[in-house]
Amino acid sequence: MLAEADCPPAHRYLMVLDRASPGAVAITDRAVATYFAKERDRFDAASAAVTEAFLGRPQSATEASLIVAYCYADVLAGRRFEVAFDLDHPDVCEPTVAILRYGVVWGQIVSDILHHGWTQTAVIEFPVGLPHRIAGLPPDQIETHHSSRPRVGLCTTADWEEIATAPRLGRDALPTGS
Predict the structure, then answer these.
(1) Which residues on neighbouring strands pair with residue 113, listed in sequence order?
(2) Which of 13, 39, 79, 104 reaches 20 to 30 Å from 7, CA-CA?
């Protein structure tokens, strides 16, 4: 486990690789429901409640399922991000309101946390609409060559100020969390 407070500010961002299409979201929702129905007796009360809330959530035009790479820390549901930026050019950014709602690992296990070090699906609410950088990501392109596609970072305003001036940020840089 790695707390956000233990990460340098220049490393505190979600690296968004892809945006899931409505079809991919439906497949994930079915996989979660199937797994939960089969394994429910193995869930503790808190995990069952999170999964039930996920399965019972209304479909929303302000929600996006995003594939995030190597999560910089253990990030709890409810975390707000205010900046969407180009990872290659962090000074190219736009304000947003993004609230983490759920993490989904292995395509079927829901959590109220994004786990440090994992590539996973982040279900994020954008109550004022998707930022252009997120909306512009082609859906379901995770299998394509990443070096030819834009990558987007999501972070807080305070952390963005550190990220924008960090000398190590570039196409091949991943946050280490240390």
Answers:
(1) 76
(2) 104
